[in-house]
Known about the structure:
single chain; alpha/beta; Rossmann fold; 6-stranded parallel β-sheet
Amino acid sequence: MSDVSSTKRILEALPAEALEGKRAVVRVDFNVPLADGAVADYTRIRASLPTIRWLQRAGCRVILLSHLGRPKGRVRPECSLRPVAAALEDELGVPITFIDDPPSEDARAASRHLKRGEIALVENTRFLEGEETNDPAVAEVFASLGDFYVNDAFGTAHRAHASTVGIASRLSPAVAGFLMAKELEFLGSALASPRRPFVAVIGGAKISGKIDVLEALLPQVDQILVGGAMACTFFAALGCQVGNSLVEPAKVELAGTLFGRADGKIVLPSGATIARELRPDAQTRQVSRDAIPEGWAVYDLDRASAELFAGIIRSAATVVWNGPMGVFETPPFDAGTRAIAAAMAEATSRGATTIVGGGDSAAALAQAGLQDAVTHVSTGGGASLEFLKGKPLPGVAALDDA
């Protein structure tokens, strides 16, 4: 697998004369949680600031595009980006122009009237029917707001939308922003030329969503640690009784085949933390994987498995983690995932390259207060998953070659 970061043109490579006074249309990922009409988590906003500030210093007029939620081509007030504009003003300390009707002449006029270094945020791209189908007319609307294009939204790079793909063929240059380049660099180098031992930690509920990841990683890694409910499908493939645990019956045979040809690379939990129901006050037991009784279900790793996985992680030189080890949102079933987070932090302190693939894994890391203790936390769960599968990301493919 090639290092994609070296094949695409990046913002920093543009000459100064290509930037001064130009309108930069920047696709960012401001799909942030809102609470009581305000932004509840600034992580994604702050991740975009290096690109925005760099463009400001270069004398550009900056027009930001993002989606929020799933309005499905309709204007839904609860999905408006206005609260994000307020949060961005707080972060940057400058006023933000809000463009609420991107197809209008007023929107184009607003983009032209920005002064050098000024910023505008366009209302939710998904309010426009045709954004998610990469409608050429919608791509033209977004392209009409600028002179060149920067994609800094790795979290949406796996989507072929008008604001991620269509616009890139209509504005030139079309380049990767700093966050996008950083994501591609870490994920690309981890897969193309990892320092070894190279360990992948794969968890989550269903094996069906991760089969392609396991298939793609097997030839490249030294070990894959499998946790979460998806491990139960492997347990079933090994002939274990799994009680009421989540299992995908249609994938049991596939799991068995995959495990059989993994040549020992797939490491399964030796046991589990089980309960009769998923409740914080539920009675729990720690059992080996072949001793799960009827009426009980697996909700986390047991201590022995957590210690085994943590030890392998601590001795690795490169670790990629995607997916929790249990139902980490409901203590006490967060212990296994917390153990992985702590081991990732310790491996990092020992010099390992540690990459967390966004989504639930990033949320679990933040819950443990360790988001700054690893090498890189991806801002795109779905995109990082597609990348790990070895699949091209449309939003990246659409950018100019280096």
